[in-house]
């Protein structure tokens, strides 16, 4: 309890000190997701899927702000070999912690870590009319940590951004050498500032 109170006190003191201007809104995005391994032994095709949620933005100092987000994000990958198509469908609750720096006008740069919590994972394999679906959540790591980097542009209350997410933590291992497999995605987002 003491830690919670202390954390809340420090956060309140910090934001009071910087006289943060607070705003927030909703966001939708399109993910161009895949999974990668360091040795490129596990190449996959891009899976296109949505993400949606909200954000709060705190003005810190001139041109610099901090924007935590909460997003429901559909990710994964797909592979095709011969007549067999395999899909890995991953559902995450992602928490990007984005620092934004205004470059000029409404153009800004974005950089920050992201923590993701896996809430569902399914694999689907199709081959010559045969289809098999499996729940594979227990075979994957429950959290995903990585880095976002991108650019955005704001006009009126609309915010457009393009980010690349580079997964640092392995989500599972593959192959004879137990190569770590990580998330990788481009995200094209549109947000609307409500307040």
What Rg do the Cα atoms give?
Answer: 19 Å
CATH class descriptor: Mainly Beta
- What is the β-strand count? 10
Per the CATH scheme, the topology name is Porin
Oligomeric status of the shown chains?
A: single chain
Residue stretches low in confidence (pLDDT < 50, at least 5 long) are: none
Structural class: mainly beta
Fraction in beta strands: over 45%
Level-2 CATH architecture = Beta Barrel
* Total of domains: 1
**How many individual helices?**
1
Describe the global form. Answer: elongated
Taking the alpha carbons of the first and last residues, their distance comes to: 32 Å
Average pLDDT number: 88
Helical proportion? under 10%
Q: What is the strand arrangement across the widest sheet?
A: 1-2-3-4-5-7-8-10
Largest beta sheet, briefly?
8 strands, antiparallel, barrel
Can you write the helix and strand succession as a string? HEEEEEEEEEE
